[in-house]
Design a protein that fits this description.
This protein has 2 domains: 6-121, 2-Layer Sandwich (Transcription Regulator spoIIAA), CATH 3.30.750; 140-212, no CATH class. The protein has a 4-stranded parallel beta sheet with strand order 1-2-3-4. The chain has helices at 16-23, 29-43, 65-75, 96-110, 125-128, 141-144, 176-180, 183-190, 203-212; strands spanning 6-9, 50-57, 79-84, 118-121, 147-148, 153-155, 169-170. The chain is α/β, with parallel strands linked by helices and 223 residues long. It is built from 9 helices and 7 strands. Helix 3 packs parallel to helix 4. Bound molecules: iron/sulfur cluster (SF4). Iron/sulfur cluster is lined by residues 139, 141-142, 156-157, 159-160, 194, 197, 200, 202, 206.
Length: 223
């Protein structure tokens, strides 16, 4: 923790009862809030440490998106990140009405933002979600990113996290430079089976990267 400059954690709700329902463990809400208070205090010892609170949007807690954001603002974290739960059935998790409500909550949460408190409201995630690859042969996104999971394994992106077939590194194998620029990762990203990605909320980004990587992309100087 002493060398981590960006730290993300936080409760899954604005109320203890909802937090317990989401995690399936009662009595943890106050402990998590206490952890947030201590992290914010600890960060004051450094100029460049960022404390963020993540909120995974689920059926049980989406109605608390705005109040969670406001709560974290009062606790003095630097940012909150509001992102949908990812599962293979993701698009089916919410009704159309709930999706509209979530979008509105995200927009309201975004309006809480100011220069000292950023709100990363992933409003384009659900619209970008697509179960199958669209019009692209290769995923360029994974060339620009890396995902490190809590079990210290490296994966091509956050969607593929915990898929054991795609591990290309372990934190103790070597330095970050060795892992990220090493041959194992290079081989994996170059031969990555894009067709195998059954669900992904980054399709629009993948499409845009593919467009930029064409030898002569149209409309580059279009105003
Ligand atoms: S298509 Fe999506 S899920 Fe597959 S590697 Fe690229 S970003 Fe990850």
């Amino acid at each position: 923790m002493n060398t981590a400059r960006h730290n993300h954690s936080g409760p899954a709700a604005h109320e203890a009862e909802v937090h317990a329902r989401v995690h399936g463990v009662p009595g943890q809400f106050d402990k998590v809030l206490d952890g947030v208070v201590r992290a914010v205090e600890w960060a004051k010892n450094y100029n460049d440490v960022v404390i963020g609170a993540s909120f995974i949007i689920q059926k049980d807690n989406f109605h608390q998106i705005v109040r969670f954001t406001e709560l974290m603002g009062t606790y003095g974290v630097d940012n909150v990140r509001l992102a949908h739960e990812v599962t293979p059935k993701w698009d089916e998790l919410f009704t159309d009405q709930e999706k509209i409500k979530i979008l509105n909550y995200l927009k309201r949460a975004k309006s809480v933002e100011d220069k000292d408190f950023r709100v990363f409201a992933m409003v384009d995630r659900l619209p970008s979600y697509h179960p199958k690859p669209i019009g692209v042969d290769q995923c360029g996104y994974q060339f620009f990113t890396a995902s490190l999971s809590c079990d210290c394994m490296f994966y091509p992106c956050c969607v593929t996290k915990f898929n054991r077939d795609y591990i290309y590194g372990y934190l103790q194998w070597g330095s970050l430079t060795e892992i990220l620029l090493g041959d194992v990762r290079k081989k994996l990203v170059q031969s990555f089976p894009y067709d195998a990605c059954e669900y992904c909320y980054l399709r629009e980004k993948v499409k845009f990267i593919d467009y930029l990587c064409q030898s002569d992309p149209p409309h580059v100087n279009y105003v």
